Amino acid sequence: MDVLRPTLIQIGGRVYRKSLVQEPVHPQEEEEDEGFYAAGPGDCADEPCDAFVVEETEKGFQCRVEVPSPLYKYIIGKKGETKKRLETETRTSISIPKPGVEGEIVITGQQRGGVISARTRIDVLLDSFRKKQPFTHFLSFALTQPEVQERFLQFKEEVLEKCSKDHGVSSSLFQNPAKLHLTLGTLVLLNEQEIRKACELLQRCKEDFVDQITGGSPLAVEVAGVEYMNDDPAMTDVLYAKVRMKDGSDRLQAIADQLVERFVASGLMLKEWDRVKLHATVMNTLFRRDPGAEERSSTAPGKASLKEREAFNARNILKLFEHFYFGEVQLDAVRLSQRFSTDASGYYATSGQLNFC
């Protein structure tokens, strides 16, 4: 039944089925090659496809595709085998810029269908390997008001005073107060062009729906109460502070959900949940070994493993601090934050932002 009903994936409005046929792989080969074939009406190899431009030239047909240089190796493959196979099976020639040089991959061939087939297969390969890249940026709301930072430090002090004897609880679990934030979603932006594209999309979102929801004013949000991520409070990896609109509305949730929807549709972000889970991480077991792991999570792309974590018992923390009040925040901007970075204020470096006011 897995063969008859293969996994379907969507790329740029087209649908593909993922072949279960395994290609032979070389020992210790970093690059993988997965077989994909267009499904139904999306099969661009057999019929005209307007998802991308194919130009007619004196020698046949040509198609160009912008690809970040870190992804070139997945099209080339070990010893150039992936590229050779693509060229042979589609009867095309694929020109790839030199490693580290940003540019376009150019596909040329005598048959239009062959060029379309090569482009389609390259798109699917790139989509597959992009999902395996550790994310580089994330959309965030900064919770850097002095009142919130002071209350967070008070929370930390009281937790260590009252719960330090509970299994796994230590000062190394706590978030850096200068980097308290809400994460809306993570992105893999591999060159300046993709960062610029994300910034431009933020501004379009401001014009299309954010200004209408905010009315051009900051959103008053209260940060209060704590909750845990997993099923067993005695084996907790992430403890977070809950947030709510002070006026009781769902405007913050609406902005978060619509932003993620737009970024997912653009291909810059992967869809993880039906709705954004608004939360501010206050304790994380990944901080124990890596204080710079602020934005890594078990659901995000990357190589974090369960072996890196040592869970803690959060039962007493949840009982004693169920309604702990961290303070009120005026949210006035969505930031495109850079992972593993710090600006002059101690928060993450900002590649771009959407201002409410």
Automatic annotation (TrEMBL):
One GO term describing the cellular component: nucleus
InterPro entries the record matches: AKAP7-like_phosphoesterase (IPR019510), ASCC1 (IPR009210), Cyclic_Pdiesterase (IPR009097), KH-I_ASCC1 (IPR047538), KH_dom (IPR004087), KH_dom_type_1 (IPR004088), KH_dom_type_1_sf (IPR036612)
Any GO MF annotation of the entry: RNA binding
Keyword Transmembrane helix recorded: no
Domain of life assignment: Eukaryota
Keyword Transcription belongs to the record: no
SUPFAM superfamilies: Eukaryotic type KH-domain (KH-domain type I), LigT-like
PROSITE patterns: KH_TYPE_1 (PS50084)
Alphabetized Pfam families for the sequence: AKAP7_NLS, KH_1
UniProt keyword terms in alphabetical order: RNA-binding
UniProt-listed GO biological process terms: DNA alkylation repair; regulation of DNA-templated transcription
Ranges for domain K Homology: 59-127
Protein name: Activating signal cointegrator 1 complex subunit 1 isoform X3
Species annotation: Aythya fuligula (Tufted duck)
Gene (UniProt): ASCC1
